TrEMBL record:
Record-linked NCBIfam families: ruvC
Name by which UniProt lists this protein: Crossover junction endodeoxyribonuclease RuvC
Annotated active site: 7, 68, 141
Oligomeric form and interacting partners: Homodimer which binds Holliday junction (HJ) DNA. The HJ becomes 2-fold symmetrical on binding to RuvC with unstacked arms; it has a different conformation from HJ DNA in complex with RuvA. In the full resolvosome a probable DNA-RuvA(4)-RuvB(12)-RuvC(2) complex forms which resolves the HJ.
Source organism of this protein record: Actinomadura soli
Pfam families: RuvC
Amino acid sequence: MRVMGVDPGLTRCGVGVVEGVPGKRLHLVHVSVVRTAPDDDIALRLLGIETGIEALVDELRPDAVAVERVFSQHNVRTVMGTAQAAGVAILVAARRGLPVTLHTPSEAKAAVTGNGRADKAQVTRMVTRLLSLDAPPKPADAADALALAICHVWRGGAQQRLAHAQRSRIEEAARAERERLAARADATPTRGGTSE
């Protein structure tokens, strides 16, 4: 199974893809960070995140997407941006008929370190070790994205069977959305006249 983990953020959105099955060694497929400029308009930033994630999904073709579940933080502005970026990742996956699962930060930490309260350094060390990487993935958003992907692969079992069962529903909704957009494009009149 190939899983894309997304650690959402407006300035840095971590994306990590791993391949494997529960109980077997995992392999790194890709890790990167989609970046946007903090002084850009929010619409441009979300569009940039969408474009970056879309390109990676189309290139890497994951079987499932794991996104960090946004939790309440003290800074409402930060949580809003994180939630918006998470929504973009979920939408990109849904349009392609991919099952999406949300994992909390503590679930991902517990999956890779055995401790749901592990700090970022511990998570990065364990991700580096579990994937047999020569160097730790940087920045931390990249390591967190890989931890989400690892968490999703390892949770396996019933959760993956449920995702498989829901996949046909998601694929049908994605197909209907593509048809709706195509019909809308066909119905839009062409601007300007025709030259004779």
